[in-house]
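Field: COMPLEX_INPUT
Field: COMPONENT_COUNT = two
Field: RESIDUE_TOTAL = 864
Field: MODE = joint
Values follow.
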Amino acid sequence: MSTTTENGVGGYRNTSGEKTYKKTTSSALKGAIQLGIGYTVGNLTSKPDRDVLMQDFYVVESVFLPSEGSNLTPAHHYPDFRFKTYAPLAFRYFRELFGIKPDDYLYSICNEPLIELSNPGASGSLFYLTSDDEFIIKTVQHKEAEFLQKLLPGYYMNLNQNPRTLLPKFYGLYCIQSGGVNIRLVVMNNVLPRSVKMNYKYDLKGSTYKRRASRKEREKACPVYKDLDFQDMHEGLYFDADTYNALMKTLQRDCLVLESFKIMDYSLLLAVHVLDQSPKEGGEPGQAVGDGKRPVAQRVLYSTAMESIQGDGKAAEAHTTDDTMGGIPAKSHKEEKLLIFLGIIDILQSYRFIKKLEHSWKALVYDGDSVSVHRPGFYANRFLKFMSTSVFRKTPSKSAGFCSSVPYDRDTFMTQAVTHASHWDRKTSVMV
Amino acid sequence: MSTTTENGVGGYRNTSGEKTYKKTTSSALKGAIQLGIGYTVGNLTSKPDRDVLMQDFYVVESVFLPSEGSNLTPAHHYPDFRFKTYAPLAFRYFRELFGIKPDDYLYSICNEPLIELSNPGASGSLFYLTSDDEFIIKTVQHKEAEFLQKLLPGYYMNLNQNPRTLLPKFYGLYCIQSGGVNIRLVVMNNVLPRSVKMNYKYDLKGSTYKRRASRKEREKACPVYKDLDFQDMHEGLYFDADTYNALMKTLQRDCLVLESFKIMDYSLLLAVHVLDQSPKEGGEPGQAVGDGKRPVAQRVLYSTAMESIQGDGKAAEAHTTDDTMGGIPAKSHKEEKLLIFLGIIDILQSYRFIKKLEHSWKALVYDGDSVSVHRPGFYANRFLKFMSTSVFRKTPSKSAGFCSSVPYDRDTFMTQAVTHASHWDRKTSVMV
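Field: COMPLEX_OUTPUT
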């Protein structure tokens, strides 16, 4: 326990090999997560269903869990801690929206071991995956949690309009307080099912500046590559026209929401499973995984890649079979059959804009600061252009006979949407 | 035009008999409404469909319509005016939510004469009804319009969760500026179809203090009576158990939303059509009305009384037939068959609380002012108690053999809902 080696910003590894985060061992953190969520979800079931009100987004519930147990909480082997649940009724409502039953949420998180993932980014966050592949639990910084809290009403207004989205779905926000330390956690949907062997993984931003995986990253078993690596390794991923259009439309709607919140610096997490490569080697969808359990497609609604981009109603269920594990069928330029898994990640880091959100939403409309107004639009524009031309491509129709990808006309869309909004900025006036 | 007589706060009648509002004749106002809404809805159709963003609630669109016409607007016979549309994209989304197509909205408001209603309250507002009974257009004061603007994001969060509600459905907010005068208008659902003859009309608040219709009101052809009058004239309105429970549940959810916005002083507008009374005398649902057109049930989704309280899915359509015109079947204590029409009205007058909403929603949670915290709860409680016991009653089951109405256990419900929220107030803390 004496020597620690740094592992990103907040994550350390002690001499016994166990990771620590803010001086808390990973096992103590996992234990506190399971006890805390177990308590808070159980407690919620006694509260009657009612409509979510605006105030519910600002409620924080708090319970103390001493090691020796209490009237309300069981005894445990970790240091005393306090567990805070943010916006419990609001998150309950949104778990329902995505078809997550309280018992399933409890079972997934509390009844099976949490699997610690090696840090996919360099943020120093710890990541845990539930055994059934449904949920990711991620430590977040104070400012990120605060940003999420402020974002929630508007964010969920958009989720309500459009549950088919590649944006992260937040199912809970918690804080564990112990020994003078606060560890904040978000529960989100999991983009990459473990049961599928990913041949390539990318973190894409649409930028080329310094966007190459480090040597250290490349030495890993399954490195997360970046934009320049993608361009070296692929000549685009090819989809049939309907799928390509659905994917582009989803990305555009999502980027518009992010732009409206002045969020930037997000990434597209993209994983490619090659179906044609050596089916005997295991990791093929539908095959048994390491722990001997037969993998099943994710149960949470709209959480698979395919469901996230499917435009219409109930049809998506049919797509989420054991054959694709929710991945989107695609082809490489060499006609290899692929399954694509993807989601937009890292949307909470833009907390420099928090001051603007603090006052009121009006501040966003009246804001004259050209940097904060235009930079998120520039970012979204570049992101979409890269995705729609360099990364995703439409399979050329056989009659045409030549290979041209038709980039979705993002400019027209965005001009009529966001730029429309900023156009109105100038005309906007308070009621007089 | 020289002499005017006061008619409420803002409404006057000039010597030619035509009403004026803020020095504007009713015919000029109707003309400006039809021209303005015609322009703004037409203009919207050229804007592509996209998700509503939080900022959209604060957008104000403005167009100038000179008498001689312009490139964008037709010539007209009224003074020059400017027409402002508040939150155009947000209201478009919510019209869609209620199944109102742009063409139908345009046609209802702009293509048939607007019918001026005699002022139902003493507010001085002018009320116009569209010829097809779908929409009410009402003048509102500056503060009311401002309050509605601030309310919109949270109000529609609730409508999204629960489109079955007796709360007013707002379909548009506009302002006509002419000759230095601002006239603000809301477009809402119409609670009382003209094609049904209402035998009794009430404005109920659950209070008994001075709640009797004035002598002047009583002299009208169809007076709007109040709480004490109701108690003199009826021994309650009887519903089967399912309908009673659905009605109470809807009122409770609605009152909870109003309480969360600190709104008070609203009324239940209640109209009773007696089915058994002399069917030959006309005014019977399904019969031809004065203008010789066969009445049809309202087309707008969830806008009839029956649809407003129906809990489950699609079933409501079946209920909205020509037989009931969307009214809720009930009986008097003398076993007369009735149809009940109702809606909660006058929710925008509580603008004294506007200061609190201005800062942020958080202010509502942290607010320590016991008056503003408790008075809306007291009002809601008294309102619900009166409705659930004195006004609406459950038909006694035949096996029981005696007449006892079982008031819905509002206390339990509210304790677990609103008072739960204020319970949490004390525990609530900002993130530290």
